[in-house]
Amino acid sequence: MLTLYHAPRSRSTRIVQLIRDMGIEEDVDLRIVQIPRQDGSGGRDPDNPHPEGKVPTLVHDGALIRESNAVMLYLTDLYPESPMGRPVGHPSRGAYLSWLAWYGNVFEPVYVLQVAGVSHPITQVTFRDVPEAVARLSEALAEKDWLVDDQISAADLLVASTYGWFHDLVPDDPRIKDWVARCLSRPAVTSVIEEEMAR
Hints:
The chain contains 8 helices and 4 strands, in the order βαβββααααααα. It is α+β, with helices and mostly antiparallel strands and 199 residues long. It has a 4-stranded mixed β-sheet, with helices on one face.
């Protein structure tokens, strides 16, 4: 049994969306936990095994997997028949891994820095900036409809999730706008959001 520690309306929401999109909800024990929220509500939940009290946290046969891109990779590798992943040996495996890593190593950091109003030469050299990240997205989507290849993957859900939380940050680029709309309008994505907003 897989156990996912999840806080509604948080980074782990995209994992619940992926699980639903993959059709593996019956294989996952969903445990709702509290996390500290930006508004001061919530707090660290003693039932959450994440070493920093964050979500998502996935536990499988004693193995603990944390960070969204790692959890997504683990799930799609565990279910290689799912079209949301690209298994070892697949021609698009390298691109899949690269986009998953790019999200955590570049995309999310540059947006967090921008929203926080932080600018420094070290962050610019290390992560670049939002315009450069947007240019990378636009370049990728000029060649195909999805980031990895000719069909959606967990990497699309992961990267597009940023714009799901911050609609006003969607770049004024028709290719990106169309891609974001296609990612965020998937039934698995919208149904999870609707359920969480109704809590």
